[in-house]
């Protein structure tokens, strides 16, 4: 990133390579850097909430466009969202209880990568374009049983 605010072809190529062929750690590091809006090296609850609400809903929308049958059943879109704010807030609280191992009130990149390694929903977020069915299987539990999904974020 050259700080211009625009993505040039070189930057796009690097990002695509990381997302398509990068290691799990590289994908997580890339995601963390995107979601660390203020670039302070940590995620606060507001950044994580924005990250999850936006990412989960955009991915669900993309999957709905690519594979409409995957979103049948428990997936109900309300107010333009597949994932409602209260569900995402609960997920953020669960995530912080699990990921913020030093109890600093923020999640460092190292904590994020370790947390993602233990949680299939987080781990599959980068792979939605490659394998949308895998992503949908991982997040379907959130829609069918939000409490169980929160408890799985340990």
Describe this structure as you would to a colleague.
With 154 residues, the chain is mainly alpha-helical. It contains eight helices and two strands; from the N terminus they run H-H-E-H-H-E-H-H-H-H. The protein has a two-stranded antiparallel sheet with strand order 1-2. Helix 2 crosses helix 5.
Short characterization:
It is built from 8 helices and 2 strands. It has 154 residues and is mostly helical. The longest helix has 22 residues, at 45-66.
Question: What's the SSE blueprint?
Answer:
Layout: H1 9-21, H2 24-35, E1 42-43, H3 45-66, H4 85-99, E2 107-108, H5 109-118, H6 120-124, H7 132-144, H8 146-152
The share of residues in extended strands comes to: under 5%
Shape: globular
Order of helices and strands: HHEHHEHHHH
Helix content: 55-70%
Q: What value does the average pLDDT take?
A: 74
Strand order of the largest sheet: 1-2
Low-pLDDT residue intervals, each spanning 5 or more residues: none
Extended strand count: 2
* Helix-strand makeup class: mainly alpha
**Major sheet summary line:** 2 strands, antiparallel
For the record, give the distance between the C-alpha atoms at the N and C termini, rounded to a whole number.
Answer: 33 Å
* Rg, alpha carbons: 15 Å
Number of helices: 8
